[in-house]
Amino acid sequence: MTDAPAIIAAIDGQKPHRSLWYDVWAQFSTHRGALAGAAVFALIVLAVAFGPYLHTIDPGYLDYKAKNLGPSWGHPFGTDNLGRDMLAQVLAGGRVSMAVGFTAMGLSLLVGALIGVLAGFFRWLDGPLMRLTDLFLALPLLPLLLVIIMLFRDTLRRAFGPETGIFLLIVFVIGITSWMQTARIVRGDVLALKEREFVLAARSIGTRERRIITRHILPNVLSPVMVSATLGLANAIITESALSFLGLGFPSDFPTWGRLLFDGKDFLTLTPVRVLWPGLAISLTVLSVNFMGDGLRDALDPRIRGR
Amino acid sequence: MLRYTIRRLLFAVPTLLVISFIIFALLDLAPGDPTANLPLTIDAATREQIRLSLGLGEPFHIRYIAWLNQFFIKEPMNILEEWWGGPIGDSAGRMRIRSWSTRSPVVDLIVERTPQTLWVVGMSYVVGILIAIPIGVISAYRQYSWIDQAGTLFSMIGFSVPTFFTGLVLIVIFSVNLNWLPMIYDTTHRVTDWQSFVFQFKQMAMPVMVLALFNAAQISRFMRSSMLDNLNQDYVRTARAKGMKERVVVMVHVLRNSLIPVVTVIALGVPQIFGGAIITEQIFRVNGLGALLIGGIEAADIPLVQTLTFIFAVLIVAFNLIADLLYGILDPRIRYD
């Protein structure tokens, strides 16, 4: 007895079926900038994840005899004014910056998608939720972030310890102030989707609203959510660095890329390379993520795909 | 149009009230003691008296209403009075919002710091627009050419590289290595003759360029896509068919129409500039509004921070309104009524 898929494949002319994600990848891989961005981003993530196992100097180890050194074989990025190894600090800082970036992006997507779907799907929630979105868009975000961190820093530090407390606070404030664009885009898509025939069909066979949302609406808003995920990641990394750069982020013995820049900016005349590495790391990460987002937007847009 | 304007203005009032409530509540409910920064030798009873004298003994809603009254009625009256020259009403009995750290009225501090911010930030916005519009026009006119690719890369880089890194790189290049430009912005410098003008130009060059690059990156993208939308319109073909010169078609017909959405984007960006300026002012030690805010936050100067944050919010709401109205005025196809 021959099996069914083999027969179907034979009828189709021996070609395997092209899936949606195969098409998306095909379009994505024609975008040279996006490919380069993905490669650089993967490289940075790998370096940050596995680098500390290869470059085993403790980022907090003080070595006063070797302070303010330029790049050498022992210290490829040089050392700072306390003799700490810069490469180890950049790698350790990258872990924190990436962790903040991904967690804050996740939170912002969750809130944005939830509010967008609710506002788009339930007419009675649309007005209030969109007014809420407008209100959040009218808030002066950077000053407010600074104020929140100033006010709640000490309390959270006492409750969760200096590092975890600040981590939770920064992730929370970035996530809670960057969901508005996602919510607007998702709402627009949901408004169009819920009038489509397949939703009507699902409704007519008695599907519950919860099921319609999770089964039919959510998979279809996945592409705008993915594009805003890339933008959100870039935004979260920049915001965290900006907060640390203004001295209101993590404590100084706990390196992040923004914090390293903040600490390095007072030694510009002595060791100018010190600001180069963390700055380059932030810039390359954000640039590669933005290029990926650009390629992803083209790849997920069916009007562009296949052209 | 007038009806729309009035409706939007009326809608702006509750928005601002809610924002003012959020800001007030956030600062008020936060843990933290305004007397914590005072010397430890002050005993508990005196501390309690200081707290009462700061008005902290009143219930929450009374303090909120008092703050609103102060912000929306009394302080504008004070400003009016200064313009008017003479006293209006009960001017001696009117209270001021006072900074906790300097004890001077917050409004005076803000008035003192605004010119520096406006000079640096305003100039950078103008320079940014002047860079962005030609790039956008050429990128769109020669779509997919090398110049368009270069423009795209430029805007991508300008958009992605944070201002606090470009600023530091510029300092390392132009101040540390080449020693051409001063590292720190001198706010007390007065322009009196040619030499002092050159110095002013030099010290403004770096902060202005940093912010201008960032602004130009965003605006040039909008300019390009707006030009692309218009270049394929029927009226462009008609203009060419009439035998008009290509220069006139692009620079008069297309450019003028493409600028309509860009102008609104520019208006929307103005308040964001103040936010971005916080970081730039910090890098170059410009003694402006951003530096005032950071100083206030570090000193836990709540009245100052409250007022400044709320002024930023007012700017955002105001420029949102201005952008929408400008769009309606510039584009006759848009009718709000």
Could you characterize what this model shows?
The complex is a heterodimer of chains A (307) and B (337). By secondary structure, chain A is mainly α. In chain A, 72% of the residues lie in helices and 0% in strands. Chain A contains 13 helices and no strands. The longest helix of chain A is centred in the middle third of the chain and has 36 residues, at 86-121. The two termini of chain A are 42 Å apart. The model of chain A has no long low-confidence stretch (mean pLDDT 82). Chain B has 11 helices and no strands. The mean pLDDT of chain B is 82. With 337 residues, chain B is mainly α. In chain B, α8 crosses α9 (246-284). Chain B has helices at 2-29, 44-53, 60-84, 106-141, 146-160, 163-177, 194-231, 234-241, 246-284, 289-298, 302-330. The interface between A and B is large, with 44 and 48 residues.
Number of strands of chain A: 0
Strand content of chain A: under 5%
The overall average pLDDT of chain B, rounded, is 82
Strand percent estimate of chain B? under 5%
Percent of residues in helices of chain A: over 70%
Q: What is the percent of helical residues of chain B?
A: over 70%
List segments of chain A where confidence is low: pLDDT < 50 over at least 5 consecutive residues: none
Look at the helices and sheets of chain A and give the structural class.
Answer: mainly alpha
Q: What is the number of strand segments of chain B?
A: 0
Largest interface: A-B, 44 and 48 residues
Q: Assembly type of the shown chains?
A: heterodimer
Question: Could you give a short description of this structure?
Answer:
The complex is a heterodimer of chains A (307) and B (337). With 307 residues, chain A is mainly alpha-helical. Chain A is 72% helix and 0% strand.
List the topology elements.
The complex is a heterodimer of chains A (307) and B (337).
Chain A: H1 4-11, H2 20-28, H3 32-54, H4 86-121, H5 123-137, H6 141-160, H7 162-176, H8 180-193, H9 197-204, H10 209-220, H11 222-245, H12 257-264, H13 273-300
Chain B: H1 2-29, H2 44-53, H3 60-84, H4 106-141, H5 146-160, H6 163-177, H7 194-231, H8 234-241, H9 246-284, H10 289-298, H11 302-330
